[in-house]
Amino acid sequence: MSGAEVATGEEATFRDAVVTFLDATVPRKGTGARPTGEPVERARAFQASLAGAGLAGITWPPEYGGLGLPGRFQRIFEREAAAFELPPRVLEIGLGMVGPTILVHGSDEQKRALIPPLLRGEHVWCELFSEPGAGSDLASVQTRARRDGDEWVVDGQKVWTSGAQHSDLAACLARTDPDRPKHEGLTMLVVDMHGPGVTVAPLRQMTGDAQFNQVFLDAVRVPLGSTVGDVDGGWRVARTMLGFERQALSGLGSGGGRGSLSAIAAEATARGLISHAVVRQRIVDLRARQMLLRHLTAYLEARRRAGGGSGGEAAILKLAMARLVQDAADAAVDIAGPGAVAWDAAERGAGRWSAQLLNAPSASIGGGTNEIVRNVIAERVLGLPRDVEVDAGVPFRDLRVGTQRDG
Questions:
Q1: Is the C or the N end of the chain the one with fewer CB within 10 Å?
Q2: Range of weakest confidence among 34-43, 60-69, 216-225
Q3: Prediction pTM value
């Protein structure tokens, strides 16, 4: 039997296992069955079942609880899972961003302690990155971590933290040496979100949801062993995590946003518009861009497994995703017409197009604004000259950035 035939047989066996698991765990789309229960607990339970079935961490190293399979097996899972009502992807920050970063920069002890529980759905993660005075200029973070014996003492304020209200652990970017230039005095820490001194306050969005939060850190103690990467080397770790974030966000957005392209096509059919050439062409264009995103995501995953970087290419993905999400939202509202802003509350999926439109602008902000992402592409992909850095080599404490005051 040839290698290709063996691989095909392995893929078929894997696909059968995936479908059997999904049929036994979650309802298929279109059956009318509605999932019940709180979204976070549903996601935890699903991930635990996934791990129990031996399907968690498909491409992750076996020594930390994964299967160590090639990326094509992950794509098989995603293709089959598209037919089922999966729980919300509230674990995505851990599974798509923090976990992969720990696999790159974490110690063996950290990998053994943090990766298996993540794959079992035991830990929900968030990122403590942005601050009131450090958004696009992330390296200007002022949250301070001071050494006290075998611990760090962390003080500061973070903002726009997705999912902090139900997170167990956080990857926190903190300043450990203000006497060094802003990119050089940062350290990445793992913070216990249930620990003393951590306060989470929700931020209400125009959608009516409160997915983002402010997080206040008051004398929060973090063991030195919870340092990811080198002390004062946190910017390198943060860049890795941002690359994974942009890649993960492109995957989340590759369906065209909250309303999938199939749902947009169904809306056009229901309203008798699918026969219009302009409408069909618009949907086909979105679908082509969606497929391109998926192929690029698979390419980056293969590069990552081969030890290659993904920062610049991930930025391309993120920018393409943001534009796709917003264009899909515009198309959905144009097709739905008045039904996008007025609906029967008892109707399944009621208000989905309005929610998609209101949520779409966030795609151009999360993981780096479109403007910052274009800079990344220009510098790292196209090789264009970097912007002039007037603060290069200047100790952070001497800079007038963010909310840092004179004197």
A1: C
A2: 34-43
A3: 0.83
